[in-house]
Amino acid sequence: MKKNLLFEDILRTVSRYFVIIIIAVVLIICCSGIRFIKSGEQAIILRFGKIVGDTPDEQIHDAGVLFAFPYIIDEVITVPTGSIHEFTVNTHYTEGEMTTYDRNGYVITGDDNIAILSASVKYTISDPVAYALSVKDPQYIINAAVSNSMINVAAGYAVDDLLTTGKDAYTKSVLEMSQNKLDANGIGVKISHLELTRVSMPEEVRDMYELVNSTNIQASTRIEQARQYYETRIPGAEAEADALIAEARANYSNFTAAANSDLYEFYGVLDEYNANPEVVRIRLYSNAITNILRKIGTVRVVDDSDSLIIIN
User: pTM surpassing 0.90?
Assistant: First the structure.
């Protein structure tokens, strides 16, 4: 009898704890659908594997408390839409010497040269639904899109442009082409920034290229100096030439006017001379003597008996 009572007590105790455990499990399952979405995150709900909601506003849930069915029914996927994600694309960069070209990273430029480069990529999530459901590893696809674009765009650039003045234009073209590829795949990301972090020639030819590049820079500097000297000297020489030409023209006009005046006077006297030679000869002689005496100053005339004439 005592054994039966003891067994009944144990059974009741076990049953009571079992019910408590069952209730606790049920409560945990019921509460498993309550999720706290952090700031900078958005969430979507999959109900039996299908997204809940017909429109983006219904499908995407912002930061805050999210109520969903238990995990066995609903799956809540959080997406860090407020974060900027960054990684480096090293597909086309090789450290050290390039032992075998089939196992090293590089790009071939439009002038059939080889360049090695790497890029820093920053991206944000523009479509959380596509990001969460379309692909398992978005960064892998972004890396592939950027790497492929770097090869394609490099084919349109000379190596000198790619390594110097054309770097910014090359980067912009790679970003645009990469974004187009990602949009075509619909993975819901946007590349916000792309920057070439390392751009150079292979190590085997790097010293020679830098020497050639340095020489080209020196040549460009000399050409620029010559251009500046030309731009400085030519306007001054042209201004001086214009001044000399203007002075010559003024002298020509003055001399011509004076010569014409003398010529007109000569022809006037000639006409008078032809009409009355003796009178004109005496007048010209008198004028000449008067001009001479005016120029020589004082004249003293002595008596006829004295042969001395003093002119001061």
Answer: no
Does 271 reside within a domain? no
Of the pLDDT bands very low, low, confident and very high (cuts 50, 70, 90), residue 305 is: low
State how far the Cα of 124 lies from the Cα of 187, in Å rounded to an integer.
11
Q: Among residues 159, 152, 174, 168, which one has the least CA distance to residue 206?
A: 159
Residue 303 is part of which domain span?
Answer: 276-312
Give per-residue pLDDT as tens, 245-285: 888 888 888 888 888 887 777 777 777 777 787 777 777 77
Q: Are residues 8 and 107 in the same domain?
A: no
- Domain membership of residue 35 (yes or no) is yes
Q: How many residues does the chain have?
A: 312
Annotate 188-205 with three-state secondary structure. CEEEEEEEEEEEECCHHH
Query: Which 3 state secondary structure label does DSSP give 312?
Result: coil
Write the pLDDT tens digit of every residue in 142-169.
Answer: 999 999 999 999 999 998 888 888 999 9
Helices 277-296, 203-275: crossing angle, 10 deg rounding:
120
Spatial distance between the Cα atoms of 255 and 273, rounded to a whole number of angstroms = 26
Q: How many domains does the chain have?
A: 4
Per-residue pLDDT of 176-196, as tens digits, reads: 999 999 999 889 999 999 999
Distance, CA of 68 to CA of 45 (rounded, Å) = 8
Enter the tokens of residue 273.
């001379």
State the DSSP H helix or E strand holding residue 256, giving kind and residue range, or none if neither.
helix 203-275
Contact in structure between 159 and 112 (CB atoms under 8 Å) = no
First-residue to last-residue Cα distance in the chain: 181
Pairing of strands 107-108, 299-300: unpaired
Burial class (CB in 10 A: 0-12, 13-18, 19+), 194: buried
